[in-house]
Amino acid sequence: MQLNKLNKKEIEQLFQAVLSLENMEECYQFFDDLCTVGEMKSLSQRLEVARMLREGYTYNQIEAETGASTATISRVKRCLHYGTDGYTLALDAIKNKEKNG
What we know:
The chain is mainly alpha-helical. 77% of the residues lie in helices and 0% in strands. The longest helix has 18 residues, at 37-54.
């Protein structure tokens, strides 16, 4: 895991902060203060790329729809196949929440 390059205490504090948020409005407030617009676009773009890859979209379709570079698409694809299943966990959780209301 790449997180070992970062201060574990600080990372855990960040994760605890995210887990403590109770609704979408709180998420907007926190991430608006935490991230630049570019950082938010980049993070959300990667998640969308992961969703599209899982649904079988081609690189060309993903690039056209999201504006992601082929390097970003390749990186996300590599994480989907050889990573720690983080994208899968998040996307499945979103899908389950939408399904169960």
